[in-house]
Design brief:
Elements: H1 2-13, E1 17-19, E2 25-27, E3 34-38, E4 43-47, E5 52-55, E6 73-77, E7 80-84, E8 91-95, E9 98-101, E10 115-119, E11 122-126, E12 129-130, E13 133-134, E14 138-141, E15 148-151, E16 154-155, E17 165-169, E18 172-176, E19 179-181, E20 188-190, E21 193-198, E22 203-210, E23 225-230, E24 233-238, E25 243-248, E26 253-258, E27 271-273, E28 276-282, E29 289-295, E30 311-313, H2 314-343, E31 345-348, E32 352-355, E33 358-361, H3 364-375, E34 378-380, H4 381-385, H5 395-417, E35 422-426, E36 434-438, E37 443-446
Length: 450
């Protein structure tokens, strides 16, 4: 790690150009060999080799440009540098040593903090904050009329996009880690999802929830967020934290890294040229800003964690849902079978029958009958007759008493539990031989008293 820090320090120290003005804007420039630093008084041409040259503007700055130069939003589109007024509306170009206004609009003040980007032949502005409300609108500049037009979108559009992190690959614009504000309370709410916008059809889709490991929730004290595209991947960080994230959205992966110079020591303004990050570092003693460069090709050599998924996509989500549904169905079936078995188990004691803790009183002779069925689901007629035979009574009396008692017991149990307990079955060979059967769905257990 010490060797890495030394290497980084030497990388910065090898390239130093300073200015005293606090109000400046660093822009890429048309050539890969130099960049520009714009101020109110003029501009610097800063060559990557180290030479810096100051020049005055060839024309007076437009009077409508009445804000600090550092608040303008630069965009290099088709080898032309565009400068957007903060909040949207006014649009300028920097070309041939002068700043010129090209719009016929007015200061919208409707999309502060929006993302200014280009796609094909157009330039767009997405999201932002204005008039006490976060926006998810997309506006497109009409080069013919000089006005901004609202772009209609469809799909799963996020509600308000402010302070977002953006990444463009092919015809897709990805956005995450943004906040929205409630109109009444202005309370910020950070969105935890990754969204994608098709720049041809302008249809939104919500891809999934960002990995919890990417600590995006408590970032208020992490300073200003910075992000840029590098080798088809996204790098983003916060100015008060030396760590940064490298995200591969196409392969749904991310990894975090750490260095003490790349972001931590640099200012919020920066550009990327020839695999180099170029940005100002302000000297707190002299007040001067030195524009330094850092070689980005070595930033992935020192990871601080393992590669992990970046967002939980829909396919993975539905796999969890299907598994949960399958598990729930199996659980319901098991519980149903268990309940069904428990529900048909009746317990008898000396004076009552009960199920699920609810008991009903029975006559002693009724308990005696059910006791026989607790021992065997088939009870011969002769066994039942033994309960009713009396020495001082005829057999016919015993038969009538048995039949009457069984009929009353069946009716009573059916009224209590809505199920028939006992059925009579005649022998196929001799109809005089009777057998009484306990319902197959019922089990009777005789409670034992210790």
């Amino acid at each position: 790690m010490k060797n890495l820090i030394l290497f980084l320090f030497l990388s910065w120290a090898s390239f130093s150009q300073t200015i005293e003005n606090d109000d400046y804007l660093i822009i890429e420039g048309e050539s890969s060999k130099y960049f520009y630093i714009l101020t109110k008084d003029g501009y610097y041409i800063s060559e990557l080799a180290g030479k810096i040259t100051f020049k005055e503007y060839t024309k007076e700055i437009p009077k409508s440009l009445n804000v600090p130069v550092s608040t303008l939003i630069p965009l290099l589109h088709n080898s032309q540098t565009y400068l957007l007024y903060p909040g949207g509306g006014l649009l300028y170009t920097f070309s041939d040593g002068s700043i010129s206004r090209i719009d016929r609009s007015f200061p919208h003040r409707n999309q502060y903090g929006a993302y200014f980007f280009s796609y094909k032949e157009n330039v767009f502005l997405i999201g932002g904050y204005g008039y006490w409300q976060t926006k998810s609108i997309i506006t497109k500049f009409n080069f013919n009329s000089g006005d901004w037009e609202l772009v209609n979108t469809k799909g799963q559009q996020p509600v308000g996009i402010d302070q977002g992190t953006y990444f463009i690959e092919d015809n897709k614009l990805y956005v995450f880690d943004f906040v929205s504000r409630e109109i009444n309370t202005q309370k910020e709410k950070r969105n935890e999802n990754l969204y994608v916008l098709d720049l041809d059809s302008f249809e939104w889709k919500k891809l999934g929830v960002i990995n919890d490991t990417v600590d995006l929730i408590n970032v208020k004290n992490k300073g200003v967020k910075r992000f840029f595209k590098f080798e088809d991947k996204l790098i983003f960080s916060y100015s008060n934290n030396p760590g940064f994230f490298l995200v591969d959205i196409q392969n749904n992966s991310f990894q975090s890294f750490k260095d003490e110079i790349l972001f931590y020591k640099s200012d919020n303004q920066f550009i990327i040229k020839n695999n180099r990050l170029i940005g100002p570092i302000k000297n707190t003693l002299t007040g001067e800003s030195a524009f330094e460069k850092f070689d980005l090709t070595n930033i992935t050599n020192y990871p601080i964690d393992e590669v992990s998924y970046f967002f939980r996509d829909k396919e993975e989500f539905f796999q969890y849902v299907y598994f949960a549904l399958f598990f729930l169905i199996v659980l319901i079936i098991i519980l149903s079978l268990y309940y069904k078995r428990i529900a048909q188990t009746y317990i008898i004691d000396e004076s009552s029958i009960s199920i699920s803790g609810v008991s009903h009183k029975l006559l002693p002779i009724e308990i005696s009958i059910l006791t026989l069925f607790s021992k065997d689901k088939k009870v011969l007629n002769s066994k039942l007759m033994e309960l009713f035979v009396r020495d001082d009574k005829t057999k016919d009396y015993a038969v009538k008493r048995k039949n009457k008692t069984l009929a009353a017991l069946k009716t009573k149990l059916f009224n209590l539990y809505n199920i028939s307990f006992i059925e009579k079955q005649k022998s196929k060979g001799d109809s005089r031989h009777l057998t009484y059967l306990l319902n197959k769905k019922i089990r009777i257990i005789q409670e034992t008293i210790d």
